[in-house]
């Protein structure tokens, strides 16, 4: 059985007989003071690079889509230059995801 | 750590502060700060916390008003009665009127010379006649935010009314002129214990500010229901009033040699 790390979006998803069950979304607190940021050209389609530069952990690439569900329906290809997204704080992620 | 055998990446430009710019083939650039993070965004996307402002409050009651260097018009205790002391006796504790915000103060000191019209003279001649002190004008701002402030405002105005009137018929000391107050502010060599009388005061009731109505929370306060401006100007003009004895005791030698804390300095000569 695969074991996903705490930084993975699948950490809370059940597995049975080696298969992933229906995905259980991981939740973290939406803070009012999260920074609103406009995606720059160099991070286009690169949430992993953004996560690495922000949190020193590229495995958190999916948190931007979770935090900005209305903007980033596709976590990779909706991350385009000019899009305005909220950046979750590392302290929130540590607290709520247990990383 | 193993070195890059190919040498430094030519697409990356490193700066002395640790930040870098990487140029891609499509013309886009990747700017990273000195920590390798996203330029302009704090590490971990943690907003910079704002240090809350701190206010140092010093109690006038415990430290004594003697050390208070704010501008103050000290009035005789006889004039600090119920209606002029404030709701909680603020003016009584301060021994008079205080200007909570730094006021605009101006006064002039003149040495007057007469210049007789001499006949057949090419140059004028001047003869000393007298030295005079002009009016001290104090213009300060008063703000009101609560019942207590409103009480201080009304007490101050009420006190000024009494400081500009003489005692008449039914008073116990009928015939007494308005009292001499002491102007104090900024220290021994500034306005130190200057004997003054209030000649005029000007109260502004502006039309373009909010007014605070006192008496809503404490209907039984001593002033009842009043509406006072939340921000206004108070102008007080004072005339210096030395007694004959004080004038006789004045000495330029003492003026030059006596230092702070001496009786001479405390007489309030300007």
Task: Outline the structure in words.
The complex is a heterodimer of chains A (99) and B (270). With 99 residues, chain A is α+β, with helices and mostly antiparallel strands. Chain A has a two-stranded antiparallel sheet with strand order 1-2. Chain A has a two-stranded antiparallel sheet with strand order 3-4. Chain A contains three helices and four strands, in the order βββααβα. Chain A is globular. Chain B is α+β, with helices and mostly antiparallel strands and 270 residues long. Chain B has five helices and 14 strands. In chain B, the strands form four sheets. Chain B has a seven-stranded antiparallel β-sheet. A three-stranded antiparallel β-sheet of chain B has the order 1-2-3, with no helix packed on it. A two-stranded antiparallel ribbon of chain B has the order 7-8. In chain B, a hairpin with a 5-residue loop joins strand 2 and strand 3. The chains are: A alpha+beta (99), B alpha+beta (270). The interface between A and B is medium-sized, with 19 and 17 residues.
Structure summarized in a few sentences:
The complex is a heterodimer of chains A (99) and B (270). With 99 residues, chain A is α+β, with helices and mostly antiparallel strands.
Report the C-alpha radius of gyration of chain A, rounded: 14 Å
What count of structural domains of chain B? 2
Strand content of chain A: 5-15%
Strand count of chain B:
14
β-strand amount of chain B: 25-35%
H/E element string of chain A?
EEEHHEH
* Overall mean confidence score, pLDDT of chain A: 89
Distance between the termini of chain B: 77 Å
List SSEs of chain B in N-to-C order. Answer: EEEHEHEEEEEHEEEEEHH
Helix content of chain A: 10-25%
Topology:
The complex is a heterodimer of chains A (about 100) and B (about 270).
Chain A: E1 15-16, E2 19-20, E3 35-38, H1 47-55, H2 63-67, E4 84-87, H3 90-97
Antiparallel strand pairs in A: 1-2, 3-4
Chain B: E1 12-14, E2 20-23, E3 29-32, H1 60-63, E4 72-74, H2 90-94, E5 96-98, E6 104-106, E7 109-114, E8 127-133, E9 136-143, H3 147-163, E10 181-185, E11 191-203, E12 211-214, E13 226-229, E14 231-240, H4 244-249, H5 252-257
Antiparallel strand pairs in B: 1-2, 2-3, 4-5, 4-10, 6-9, 7-8, 9-14, 10-11, 11-14, 12-13
């Amino acid at each position: 059985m695969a074991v996903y790390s705490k930084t993975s979006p699948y950490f809370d998803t059940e597995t049975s007989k080696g298969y992933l069950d229906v995905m259980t979304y991981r939740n973290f607190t939406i803070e009012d003071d999260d920074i609103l940021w406009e995606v720059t050209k160099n991070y286009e389609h690169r949430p992993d690079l953004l996560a690495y530069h922000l949190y020193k952990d590229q495995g958190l690439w999916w948190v931007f889509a979770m935090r900005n569900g209305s903007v980033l329906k596709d976590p990779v290809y909706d991350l385009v230059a000019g899009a305005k997204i909220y950046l979750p704080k590392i302290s929130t992620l540590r607290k709520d995801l247990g990383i | 750590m193993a070195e890059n055998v190919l040498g430094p990446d030519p697409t990356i430009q490193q700066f002395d502060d640790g930040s870098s710019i990487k140029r891609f083939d499509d013309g886009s650039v990747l700017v990273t700060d000195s920590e390798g993070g996203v330029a302009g965004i704090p590490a971990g996307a943690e907003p910079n916390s704002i240090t809350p402002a701190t206010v140092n409050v010093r109690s006038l009651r415990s430290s004594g008003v003697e050390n208070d260097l704010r501008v103050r018009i000290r009035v005789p205790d006889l004039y600090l009665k119920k209606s002029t002391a404030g709701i909680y006796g603020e003016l009584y504790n301060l021994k008079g009127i205080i200007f909570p915000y730094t006021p605009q103060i101006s006064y002039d000191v003149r040495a007057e010379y007469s210049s007789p019209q001499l006949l057949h003279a090419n140059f004028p001649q001047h003869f000393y006649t007298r030295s005079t002190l002009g009016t001290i004008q104090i213009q300060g701002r008063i703000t009101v935010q609560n019942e207590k402030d409103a009480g201080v405002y009304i007490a101050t105005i009420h006190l000024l009314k009494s400081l500009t009137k003489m005692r008449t018929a039914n008073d116990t000391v009928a015939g007494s002129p308005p009292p001499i107050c002491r102007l104090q502010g900024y220290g021994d060599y500034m306005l130190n214990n200057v004997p003054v009388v209030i000649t005029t005061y000007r109260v502004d009731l502006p039309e373009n500010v909010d007014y605070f109505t006192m008496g809503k929370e404490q209907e039984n306060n001593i002033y009842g229901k009043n509406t006072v401006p939340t921000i206004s100007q108070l102008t007080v003009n004072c005339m210096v009033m030395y007694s004959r004895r004080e004038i006789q005791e004045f000495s330029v030698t003492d003026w030059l040699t006596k230092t702070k804390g001496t009786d001479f300095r405390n007489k309030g000569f300007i």
